[in-house]
């Protein structure tokens, strides 16, 4: 049985690696840039949903522009780190990494990943997966060393749990793959429901 083509609306190598864990290889990767500025008073969950939907729509536009198959599935995701109602940035420099880690040090915070999947211009199916992460209390030296490593740059909340920041994690409640960037249980279920069973 033939399956639909799959377009991944993300340039993240972590998301491609996660898909590979469930034996899924995108037929195309498209990651058009969108404005990721949160709206005033926007809550983290709403922001994650809006970003995933926006990325999917932008990738669909790019796919159509290059004459792609109208029946292809477009998969997008967005991961948000939040401390209470506050959305933490994707750290752009060492200072932002330090600021994020100083805020999260010794505290529990939320990591939520929204995924959006649909064929063509259909209304996407959306899932939001929430995990809670507690970091140990970090010393100024630990924060400075991690920031200087560069690993946290470009990461939501200024850290990568799958990297050296894993040594800062005191507890996790929820999906580990969602924290890295793509909740595999929910993604596999959505793909299967759209005629793309993982591993087949």
Defining key terms:
7-stranded mixed sheet, 200 residues, alpha/beta, 7 strands, Maf protein
Describe the overall structure.
This protein has 200 residues and is of the alpha/beta class. It has one domain: Maf protein. 34% of the residues lie in helices and 23% in strands. It has 6 helices and 7 strands, in the order βαβαββαββαβαα. The protein has helices at 13-21, 44-65, 94-104, 140-149, 176-180, 184-193, and strands at residues 6-8, 28-29, 73-83, 86-87, 108-119, 125-135, 169-173. Strands 1, 2, 3, 4, 5, 6 and 7 form a 7-stranded mixed sheet that branches. Helix 3 packs antiparallel against helix 4. It starts with 5 loop residues before the first strand and ends in a 7-residue tail after the last helix. The mean pLDDT is 95.
Tell me the layout of helices and strands.
Blueprint: E1 6-8, H1 13-21, E2 28-29, H2 44-65, E3 73-83, E4 86-87, H3 94-104, E5 108-119, E6 125-135, H4 140-149, E7 169-173, H5 176-180, H6 184-193
Parallel strand pairs: 1-2, 1-3
Antiparallel strand pairs: 3-4, 3-5, 5-6, 6-7
Helix pairs in contact: 3-4
The CATH topology name reads Maf protein
What string gives the helices and strands in order? EHEHEEHEEHEHH
CATH class: Alpha Beta
Global geometry: elongated
Q: How many beta-strand runs?
A: 7
User: How is the biggest beta sheet arranged?
Assistant: 7 strands, mixed
Mean pLDDT: 95
The percent range for strand residues is 15-25%
| Overall number of structural domains | 1
Structural class: alpha/beta
What is the CA-based Rg, rounded? 17 Å
Any low-confidence stretches, pLDDT <50, length ≥5? none
Number of helices: 6
Give the CA-CA distance, first to last residue.
Answer: 10 Å
The amount of helix comes to 25-40%
> What's the architecture in CATH terms?
Alpha-Beta Complex
